[in-house]
Amino acid sequence: MTGKTANALPLPPSAHEDAHHEPSYTISALAKEFGITTRTIRFYESRGLISPERIGTARRYSKRDRARLILILRGRNLGFTVEDVSDYLSLYDSDPGQLAQTRHLLDKVKAAIAEIETKRHDIERSLADLAEIRARCEAHLKKNA
């Protein structure tokens, strides 16, 4: 046996194992994996959202950095600001007793949910309107064909 368990998952193609058998990722590999630019990743780094290890001029991103990047991208796709995402990520690093910060984040999440629910309602209404127009057009074409 090679030391791997039967249930072990292979590393993503962007991963490299270091001397401690911890996968690490290059900036270009992460950018390619997530469909973003290296400049975007550097921006998140400059804002303190991720902190790769520096080896000379190269950056090596850990599994933790990759996981945080996933959370950052999810948050941004949901319409959260970089500051909101930073607040969210700080909960992972903070003292569990920071209840005020958690309440503040909860308020932002509730507001985002309400906004998305409103957008969903608007989209559903638009879809219904378009379906009605389509049905009328199809009926008109069928009648006059």
Automatic annotation (TrEMBL):
> Which segments does the entry list as coiled coil?
99-133
Q: Where is this region: Disordered?
A: 1-20
Keyword entries, A-Z: Coiled coil, DNA-binding
Molecular function per GO: DNA binding; DNA-binding transcription factor activity
Q: Where is the HTH merR-type domain?
A: 24-91
> Per its UniProt record, what InterPro entries does this chain match?
DNA-bd_dom_put_sf (IPR009061), MerR-type_HTH_dom (IPR000551), MerR_fam (IPR047057)
**Which domain of life, per UniProt?**
Bacteria
- First and last residue of the signal peptide: none
What's the protein here called?
DNA-binding transcriptional regulator, MerR family
The lineage, from the top, is:
Bacteria, Pseudomonadati, Pseudomonadota, Alphaproteobacteria, Hyphomicrobiales
